[in-house]
């Protein structure tokens, strides 16, 4: 049962080995009720394993896992789940499939029919008479989410719900997820960082079975995103400008980047914490050099910057570096 105030998910020191493979190496994670939580990490990071433990489908080797304060196995009826490769009966229509899924939860028929109508409406499949075998991938995923919601779960777990979808299909699925905010806690794994930026209020970055960073999206961003960057494009060569900038105290680093295919001039990126200074100095230096300024743009750090800084392999990185001091945690 729900205990007042218990988080939707509380994981402490969770470890799971598959033979010699340490899929989870002692993760801590808290998912607050009502949040839309993005669970990101490279292939093999341990995302699916975590979801399987939460569902009671895999047993952990160490640590504790609580779902609404209880053992995951006893909370199964309060959890909805969409696996990364869902199975369907292709000869069924959407309403038939939802009726079949609902029959597993022994709902009375009025409740079930009302839910089917609401979920068909929410998934945009209400007027669709095609059998599932004729669905696009986007339609299948929307039906999969509807199916996962048939028992009106308090926690919805989605394993890579938007991978392999085109932009319209992704938008439809993300809209469905966003609609659940505040009503159903959503935890979804993904490689698509832009999706997390679009709909999530919380995020965890998992790598090699460890949580590298976790918490409210804006906090994770401000803690890990590093310096802001200014993108400068000239109408010609930027070597001299780069040399001059390298001598300025407010410049942390300068890197080259590719100009857009349509424009010819050099593009440089300046890492700095002093954007007002950059706004004054860059145009002044460009004028001194009698060059043409094509673009001056302050680029806000993205979740991709955070992800790359936390998980990108570099030659000096140990195979399993220790978790961040903030908490291999929430
Ligand atoms: P992906 O993004 O590729 O789906 P993931 O983050 O979901 O990856 P997991 O599927 O949890 O990662 O896998 C974590 C590690 O555990 C990987 O090294 C994987 O090969 C291993 N693993 C997962 N399931 C099993 C299994 N049933 N038997 C053996 N090893 C497994």
Elements, N to C (H/E): EEEHEEHHHEHEHEEHEHEEHEH
Structural class of the helix and strand makeup? alpha/beta
Shape: elongated
Q: Give the number of domains.
A: 2
Question: What small-molecule ligands were found?
Answer: adenosine-5'-triphosphate
From the 3D coordinates, which CATH architecture of the largest domain would you assign?
3-Layer(aba) Sandwich
Largest sheet: 6 strands, mixed
Low-confidence stretches: 314-330
Radius of gyration equals 24 Å
Could you name the CATH topology of the largest domain?
Rossmann fold
What CATH first level of the largest domain would be assigned?
Alpha Beta
In terms of DSSP E residues, the strand content is: 25-35%
Q: Tally of extended strands?
A: 13
Question: How far is the N terminus from the C terminus?
Answer: 23 Å
């Amino acid at each position: 049962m729900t205990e007042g105030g218990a988080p939707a998910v509380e994981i402490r020191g969770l470890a799971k080995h598959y033979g010699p493979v340490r899929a989870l190496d002692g993760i801590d994670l808290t998912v607050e009720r009502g949040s839309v939580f993005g669970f990101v990490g490279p292939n093999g990071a341990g995302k699916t394993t975590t979801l399987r433990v939460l569902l009671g489908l895999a047993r952990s080797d160490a640590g504790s896992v609580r779902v609404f304060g209880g053992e995951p196995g006893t909370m199964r009826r309060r959890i909805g789940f969409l696996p990364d490769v869902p199975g369907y009966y292709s000869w069924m229509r959407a309403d038939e499939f939802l009726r079949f899924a609902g029959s597993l939860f022994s709902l009375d028929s009025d409740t079930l029919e009302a839910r089917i109508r609401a979920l068909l409406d929410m998934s945009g499949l209400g007027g669709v008479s095609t059998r599932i075998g004729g669905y696009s991938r986007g339609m299948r995923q929307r039906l999969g989410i509807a199916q996962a919601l048939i028992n009106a779960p308090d926690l919805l777990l989605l394993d890579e719900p938007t991978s392999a979808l085109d932009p319209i299909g992704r938008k439809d699925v993300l809209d469905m997820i966003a609609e659940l905010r505040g009503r159903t806690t959503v935890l979804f794994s993904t490689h698509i960082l832009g999706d997390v930026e679009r709909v999530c209020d919380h995020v965890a970055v998992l790598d090699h079975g460890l949580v590298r960073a976790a918490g409210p999206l804006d906090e994770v961003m401000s803690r890990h995103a590093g310096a802001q960057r200014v993108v400068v494009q000239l109408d010609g060569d930027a070597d001299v400008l780069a040399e001059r900038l390298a001598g300025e105290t407010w410049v942390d680093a300068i890197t080259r980047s590719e100009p857009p295919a349509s424009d010819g001039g050099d593009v440089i990126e300046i890492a700095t914490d002093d954007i007002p200074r950059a706004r004054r100095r860059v145009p002044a230096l460009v004028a001194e050099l009698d060059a043409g300024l094509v673009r001056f743009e302050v680029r806000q750090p993205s979740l991709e910057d955070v992800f790359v800084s936390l998980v990108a392999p570099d030659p000096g990185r140990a195979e399993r570096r220790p978790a961040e001091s903030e908490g291999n945690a929430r």
